[in-house]
Design brief:
There is one protein chain. The protein is 36% helix and 19% strand. The chain is of the alpha/beta class and 192 residues long. The chain has a single domain, classed as 3-Layer(aba) Sandwich (Rossmann fold). Helix 3 (56-66) links the parallel strand 3 (49-52) and strand 4. Helix 2 (29-41) crosses helix 3 (56-66), helix 4 (90-96) crosses helix 5 (98-106) and helix 6 crosses helix 7. The longest helix is centred in the middle third of the chain and has 15 residues, at 119-133. InterPro entries: His_Pase_superF_clade-1 (IPR013078), His_PPase_superfam (IPR029033), PG/BPGM_mutase_AS (IPR001345), Phosphogly_mut1 (IPR005952), Ribazole_CobC (IPR017578). Its EC number is 3.1.3.73. Keywords: Glycolysis, Isomerase.
Length: 192
């Protein structure tokens, strides 16, 4: 099985360097162009299944890539729920929520953001999704999701090691290709 994982196209929140989880930030013209470039690049792949998060930015990116082919919306692919930090810059979070920001810095894996979730909780969602993917017979699967979720997929593939989260980067419109064979994941390509 080949897993083609794409980070959604650029949004206004991305440009402004905002933590954007459940907030619905729209694709920019650049974000739409990133989807079109992937459409051209992946046009020779026959995707057996397509999955996206429930966010419009991921759904629209998938629609551009696949020219509107049906996709399954899976909430396990939603970006980390940033709760009270959602759609705020780091400086805004520091200013308006100094105690919560400090607690988050001190325990970025386990701290549950008020009205949101922890990175560890998001990882459990990703792990559940990946376990289900491993059971599928399909050959080529497209996933359009978010930067934080893609990092968590890498952590899952690398022996569920959450400490590796900050060792990877995922750009808007970036493509990663993973392979699952003989009950083993391998990372074939990471392109940003």
């Amino acid at each position: 099985m080949n897993l083609y994982i794409v980070r959604h196209g650029e949004t206004k929140s991305n440009i402004e360097k905002r933590y954007c989880g459940l907030y619905q930030s729209e694709l920019t013209e650049v974000g739409q162009a990133q989807g079109l470039a992937l459409n051209e690049r992946l046009s020779n792949i026959g995707f057996d299944k397509i999955y996206t998060s429930c966010s419009k930015r991921a759904e629209i990116t998938a629609d551009i890539i696949t020219e509107g082919a049906y996709s399954y919306k899976d909430p396990r692919l939603n970006e980390l729920n940033f709760g009270i930090f959602d759609n705020k810059t780091y400086k805004e979070i520091e200013k308006h929520y100094p105690l919560q920001c400090t607690a988050w810095q001190e325990d970025w894996k386990g701290y549950v953001i008020p009205q949101g979730e922890s990175t560890f909780q998001a990882f459990q969602r990703v792990k559940s999704f990946m376990k289900d993917i491993e059971k599928l017979p399909e050959e080529n699967i497209l996933i359009v999701t978010h930067g934080g979720i893609i990092r968590l997929v890498y952590c899952y593939v690398l022996n569920e090691n959450l400490d590796l989260y900050w060792k990877f980067h995922s750009s808007n419109g970036g493509l990663s290709i993973l392979s699952y064979e003989y009950e083993n994941w391998s990372i074939k390509t990471i392109e940003n």
